[in-house]
Amino acid sequence: MKITSLSMVVVSSLLFVGAALADNSHDADKAVESSLRATLNERHVHFHVHKGIVTLEGRVSTEADRQRLESVVRNTTGVVAVDDKLKVSLPSPGAVGGLPSVPVFTTPLPEIVPTTPVVTAPPPAVIVPGYPKIKVQAFSADDEPTASRIARQLRVDGVPTEGFENVVITVRGGKISLKGSVGTKDAHDDIIAAIQRTPGVTAIYDQMQEES
Hints:
This protein has helices at residues 2-39, 63-74, 144-156, 185-196, and strands at 45-50, 53-60, 81-88, 104-105, 126-127, 134-138, 164-172, 175-182, 203-206, 209-210.
């Protein structure tokens, strides 16, 4: 009887300790989730925390974005491991079968300050058949061939014809300025990928806004 009673006491104690540990783990996971919600501002990225292990799912634009997010999560207090299941929308520049190495900036296209005032009208905008809300504008006559190639590449890549609002693609010396609104992240990524594939493009300055 004494042995049985002692066993019951031990089992009860172990169950109590296990329940307490489970509660502590749950509270710790909640704290990590709250911290990550305040840190991560990626509407296409989702995460789940279980016993300190953070599972990342969703899509990011570039490999650099994926590495940045994983680093932020890994360095968050309370995280013991990261299960990274993120998918990269655009292949790494220079990768075999990937896109050309064309950098994408989120700043405006740098302005040119001429040494002497020059007043010239820009060439007519390139009309892209089937894309009424997209305009490709060459800065000068020298930029017209690249502008035409971009218009053609949009059609070749099958970029969606809808979901854009007043998108202006300005071409200046191989540098591309993007302004306007897009309906989805996929459409955003598609138009950038098409421009990256266009011969003559050396840099992209992306200031398009996603509506969703």
